[in-house]
């Protein structure tokens, strides 16, 4: 019997060894598969178990965290939610994250390995770093001025600092409050459904995620290309252009809203915004040089991140002469985000240099130590310095004696360009009012701010919609807010 | 220590003065260690959750300590030569189980199970003491062979009259208490099997025809085996309790093999078991569903219904990794229903890691080993079979439930001995430990003074 007892003991030992081997298989060998299974809620629970780091504007947090005591413990809160929604985006337990909340999520949630005091520290201690903070480049005064200026309308504002590329304002109206989306309950679901059903699309960030035909504001690009190419010798020489202009290869006549465009000088044509002159200039400059100029300003760049992606602004390069003529006055397939047009104004303001725009100044640990800081981004030359200085003159002319008079600021040098872009089938839609500009304090060496405003207002009469009338006052308010600040 | 055990089991009777030294001091030291570890775990939960030692820590430690010391005194008085390991192992497993249940209670404030479990543990230790004090010689149990089997069958059949709970008819509810009579039936059946086989060994060993390399049993002795098999399948079908059925049948096959030494029994047992399993797996939807879940634990996730309990259990084990998340810091409560009972091991796996889980399984292994060692040391066939049966019962039950929650075999609703919430189980396991202590004491006395007990 003893021998058989030993056999039975061996059998029991085998059972227990099988358990140990299987436990090692589940807990070590296949652990990663199980941990990363999307149905495993642990990652989510850990993610919301601590307060999320904050997004700061001018040193003050515009976000917060609320302890709900629920299973997913902390929920996001927002101060001035609709004002900063185009910057922060939302952080929802149900619907994920967008904009800065998405691109800076690793820092904000504490998951970024760089937040650890020592490499592999969190893996070893099974802890999670406290959420880090994200300091933005936004100027709260400019942001508020833009938001107030667009109140009751539909549109967007982008403002940048020409010498650095820092984004000073990013506003989209109508906006929304991201806070009700933070949780995972009924409020979040109802808000989500309501926002998605809204025909005005409040969650669309018009400043960077939507492109508009830039209309006459694109004439800055066409003028820069023509001057750089030597197609125009001087801004005060007649351009030998007809009015109306017969689009090459067609029988379509291009006419002007403005008067005295026939054979106008570049200066006069720019100030009066003559379509005929710039259409012809574009055609004379040629598609390859026009393309090079547009792309050096940032058009056709699908990879721009600020750090969230920006919709690519487009300048169509497979065009015939007539299409090129229309493209050169910001119509046909030419489309731009407000941020792109702010970059165009900034290039003029900073002597022809285009600096990549950015929104995050610094990310820090919860304790304040810097994790990463914005370095000087890529710099591109969009035009010769001489061309930039001539264009500055032309843009000043628009504000001082042209269509952009409402942008003038006492004690400051302001340059601008209006635009009223047709769109829709047969240009039936309400036109978009554009204004792009830069401003420099008289006591300073270089412009402090470049701004682009687009108003896509469906209300009001067709006549009232114009770059100079509707968009320029908004731009002025933003520029003033930046310039006033010491 | 173990070497001494072997010597005792096999050597000729030596001088009693040397051999009869008890090892009660070792036992007491181990009990202090077991209680200390449990209190440490209890404090660790509180520190991890609230940053403070939980207020009940002293009371918990004192309660567990008093119970363990009382049990120890009973052993010291009535079974002084007993193996010093089973009692501390029981105390440690029961203590860890209480810590895990207390820890899970924090996640379900409306449903506290630890206080009731503490009461059941007290009852269990009381039963342990009673067995040690009353049962002076294990062979007395042989007189109650048929009382045992009758009681076991009654206990097994009673739940059929009660409504099914979560698909299985294994509970009876009396005055607010849920009792699983099948748990008590385990011990009674082990006693019956041991006594029956000890009495009928000769007849059963008589071999029938030889086929290939196996001796087939004769038709005359096939009857009891088929009867037990039928009862097991009956339990399975009527109560939908795969685990208990597997356990009984496994226990019977092991004891039959040990008693007769016939490999034919094992072959026949395996054949019948697989036949039964295949048939029931096909026909019985509840069991069929368990098998499907075992084969495809993530099917419900792919179907968009979210993770099922087995998937959640696997997630918990995986999260534990090697060292675990630490007591009180895991999320095994996601398993939901039965997290404190059938799935208690997942909490241990997540919060104590593979290291802690291995320690727990090794504790069970040690308990089983001590049982087998007593079986080897005993001289009387009944005692040997009873020790082997009780030890195998522990091993089989641990395998069936731990294998189920880790995805090794299909899940069967069963309580992890000592760890899981469930009064019947705790009380039964204390009875098993008491019998093992008694058997080990008898083994040493038989070795020391052959004939003295006969």
From TrEMBL, chain A:
Domain Penicillin binding protein A dimerisation, residue spans: 52-134
Secretion signal span: 1-23
UniProt keyword annotations, A-Z: Glycosyltransferase, Signal, Transferase
Residue ranges occupied by any Penicillin-binding protein transpeptidase domain in the UniProt entry: 155-480
Keyword Aminoacyl-tRNA synthetase tagged: no
Record GO terms (molecular function): glycosyltransferase activity
Listed EC numbers: 2.4.1.129
PANTHER family: PENICILLIN-BINDING PROTEIN 4B (PTHR30627:SF24), PEPTIDOGLYCAN D,D-TRANSPEPTIDASE (PTHR30627)
Name of the protein this chain belongs to: Peptidoglycan glycosyltransferase
Species in which this protein is naturally found: Streptomyces thermodiastaticus
From TrEMBL, chain B:
Protein source organism: Streptomyces thermodiastaticus
Transmembrane domains' residue ranges: 28-51, 57-75, 87-104, 116-135, 144-164, 184-207, 219-236, 242-258, 265-283, 343-364, 385-409, 415-437
UniProt KW keywords: Cell cycle, Cell division, Cell shape, Membrane, Transmembrane, Transmembrane helix
Principal location listed in the UniProt entry: membrane
Recorded superkingdom: Bacteria
Bilayer disposition of the protein: Multi-pass membrane protein
Pfam families registered for this protein in UniProt: FTSW_RODA_SPOVE (PF01098)
Name of the molecule in the record: Cell division protein FtsW (Lipid II flippase)
Compartmental location: Membrane
A Gene Ontology biological process term: cell division
